[in-house]
Amino acid sequence: MAIREDLVASAAKFLQDPSVASSPVEKKIAFLQAKNLTQEEVNAALVRAGAQPGPVQSFAPQPASSPVTQPPVYYGQHPPQYPPYAWQPPPQQTPRRDWRDWFIMATVVSGVSYGIYTLGKRYVYPLVAPPTPERLEQDKKAIDEQFEKTFALVDQLAKDTEALKAAEQERTERLDATLNDLESVINDLKSANRRRDDEAQRMRDDVQNLKDSIPRALSGQKDLTDTRLREVNAELKSLKTLITQRMNPTAASASVSNYLRPAASGNATPSPAATPAPAENPGAEAGEGSRPAYQDYLSNPNRSSPFSSGMQSKASIPAWQMMASKSGASSTSPGVNGTDAGSSETQEAAVGP
After folding, report:
1. How far apart are CA 5 and CA 77, in angstroms?
2. How many CB atoms lie within 10 A of CB 43?
3. pTM across the whole model
4. What CATH class is the domain 1-58+71-89?
5. Three-state DSSP class for residue 259
6. Start-end of CATH 1.10.10.10 domains in the chain
7. String of DSSP letters for 218-247
8. DSSP designation for 346
9. How many CA atoms lie within 13 A of 198 on its CB side?
10. 97 to each of 94, 100, 102, 222, how far by Cα in Å?
11. What does the pLDDT look like over 134-155, one tens digit per residue?
12. What gap in Å lies between CA 260 and CA 201, rounded to an integer?
């Protein structure tokens, strides 16, 4: 196999380095073989570097699939001349160890052993060694103290919990009582408000009823007053008719009629029913133009009572007029009663003298 000159040259230069020259030959050979140099190339590199080649070792042949590339030859460059193979000296013997080496080794081993023993005794042995009775007793006392502290803390916590529970129960009771009072006050306020609303609504209804009833009452009172006035007028007409019927058909009847209904002027015409015949009382007709008839009747000292005339039958008030008078007297207002009283006085004045 051809030697690769470039690799051999670089290997020789590497071996000539001062830091590499002091190394053993075995290491140099192993390093060069690690760089894929063959045994021949290693020996050539050692020869060029001035070192003795080591023993020839047998290596497996390189596979045929990896061809060896020859370095190119440039113009003016001559191929290197290979020196002839020289005699290879035997390998160097290993240095012998004296008592100092063994002493140093024993000292180092003793120090390392003592350090390992100290570390194991201080850190490892307490972890794996069984506890002593004193240690057990100390641990027991410590555990008992911890238990006592824990029990005391639990008792204190239970007392505090009971106190908090009692305070919370009391606060809850006060809160419930306050809520009940507040609810009762709210209910009372609602009831009072409801009653006030009811009273206000009732007052509004009463006021509205009064507003509605006052016009009706006034209208009813007006109608009642008109009715009573008409009844009074009817009563007066009935009384007038009754008095006229009870009087004789003489001049006295005409005087009574004129007294009850005085004429406003001298030319007032008396009612036909109450006017007597002119032949029976010519003196009454003669004085009718100068003064009212009721004055002649009252001023005449020789007047005769209309009720003393000799009538065949005595006239009486009809029953329906008496019932109407009684019903009117029971439901008549003070003003109407005054009117009735005035009419009664008028009747007494007309009938009495």
Report:
1. 13
2. 22
3. 0.26
4. mainly alpha
5. helix
6. 1-58+71-89
7. HHHHHHHHHHHHHHHHHHHHHHHHHHHHHS
8. H
9. 6
10. 9, 8, 8, 163
11. 888 998 999 999 999 999 999 9
12. 58
